[in-house]
Amino acid sequence: MSNRALQRKHGVGFRTVTAALESAWPKERKQPPKRGSRLDAYRVVIDDWLRSDLDAPRKQRHTAKRIFDRLLDEHDGAGVVSYWMVREYVATRRREIRVEVGREPANAFIPQEHLPGREALCGKPHRASSPAGTSSRSTVTCARRVSSGTVAATHRRNDATDASTPCSSRSRCHTVDWCTPAASCARM
């Protein structure tokens, strides 16, 4: 097909068709340069106030409203900065300063790594009577694989009539295969 036919068929411009014919993968978009904020001129002043608040009593510390009022009065910030700009900056910067000084721990994220087939969460064994209503007891232990969430149940039927007798090697053991969580919930 010609370029003009491709333009009409897909509803795109000439440059888009040319770029698609050159490469199947689109080029990465250029990021526009970050523009400065109107608050940039006052960041050093606000940071100094927040650092001085670290040693001040709780009732004498600057709130975002108090910082905004001081900017208007002392630094001629009227019409330049808004309360919402100051409030958002103070909310993030106050915590960053406390972390820098060492007064507050930095948030740390440690991902958990569960190797498939190595770990499982096991439920507490339950004793229940058989569905036929006989006097035999059985023990059901449920396990959930940590990595995938699949569930297995082990069912041991005791030959002993006393409920306090633990399972022995003579007891018969039946294992339900690993299955999806939804299917196991319906079975339990």
Quick recap of the structure?
The chain is an alpha+beta fold and 188 residues long. Helix content is 34%, strand content 16%.
Helix-strand topology string: HHHHHEEEEEH
Spatial shape: flat
Rg, alpha carbons: 34 Å
| Structural class based on helices, strands and sheet pairing | alpha+beta
How many strand segments?
A: 5
Give the uncertain stretches in residue-range form. Answer: 160-188
Q: Give the termini separation.
A: 62 Å
Q: Count the helices. How many?
A: 6
SSE blueprint and pairings:
Layout (H helix, E strand, L loop, with lengths): L2 H8 L3 H9 L20 H10 L11 H11 L8 H19 L18 E3 L3 E4 L7 E9 L5 E7 L14 E8 L1 H7 L1
Helix pairs in contact: 1-2, 3-5, 4-5
What does this structure look like?
The protein is α+β, with helices and mostly antiparallel strands. 34% of the residues lie in helices and 16% in strands. The protein has 6 helices and 5 strands, in the order αααααβββββα. Strands 1, 2, 3, 4 and 5 form a 5-stranded antiparallel β-sheet that branches. Strand 3 and strand 4 form a beta hairpin. Helix 1 crosses helix 2 and helix 3 packs across helix 5. The chain is flat and about 80 Å long. The two termini are 62 Å apart. The C terminus is likely disordered.
